[in-house]
Task: inverse folding
């Protein structure tokens, strides 16, 4: 091989290797034993190889740009995903706190209900007791009124016009008043 000539080796898609010398007009297929040499114009092959090389380099640049875009998209998605996970964790924490608050409030409400029920029972008891006292007081007042009306009635003081008699008041001798006083002392 002279200084001006150079050997070009190209691997084809089928795995075979093409060997070409820039000074030769022959293309050999080294991986195929017994292949028939083809006569070609070296400039055409070199132009085709250079065009293919340029196209592959352009594809390499394009693929590299696409890869960088995909990496950037992936990084942006990863950042977004991290933010979403972080936000979800915040929401989970807030939900747990809210559930605890609800549980505490429900417990407080239950305590208030129990307290209210206890107070209601106590009030009912007091109300019944006071109602009974009120009923008894009204009965006592009615009896007192009856006794006062008895003593206040002039007819009861008058003596009968015939024979030896007593007025109703003198025949009573204060028994109605004593009974009333005894009733009051029994209740006290």
Result:
């Amino acid at each position: 091989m002279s200084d001006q000539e150079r050997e070009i080796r190209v691997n084809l898609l089928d795995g075979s290797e093409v060997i070409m010398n820039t000074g030769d007009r022959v293309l050999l297929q080294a991986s195929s034993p017994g292949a028939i040499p083809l006569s070609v114009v070296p400039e055409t092959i070199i132009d085709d190889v250079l065009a293919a090389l340029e196209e592959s380099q352009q594809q390499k640049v394009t693929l590299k740009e696409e890869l960088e875009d995909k990496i950037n998209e992936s990084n942006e998605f990863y950042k977004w995903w991290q933010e979403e996970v972080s936000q979800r964790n915040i929401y989970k924490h807030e939900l747990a706190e809210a559930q605890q608050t609800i549980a505490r409030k429900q417990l407080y409400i239950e305590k208030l209900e129990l307290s209210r029920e206890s107070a209601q029972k106590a009030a009912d008891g007091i109300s019944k007791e006071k109602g009974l006292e009120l009923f008894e007081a009204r009965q006592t007042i009615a009896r007192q009124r009856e006794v006062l009306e008895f003593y206040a009635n002039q007819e009861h003081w008058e003596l009968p016009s015939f024979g030896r008699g007593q007025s109703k008041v003198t025949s009573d001798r204060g028994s109605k008043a004593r009974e009333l006083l005894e009733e009051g002392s029994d209740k006290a």
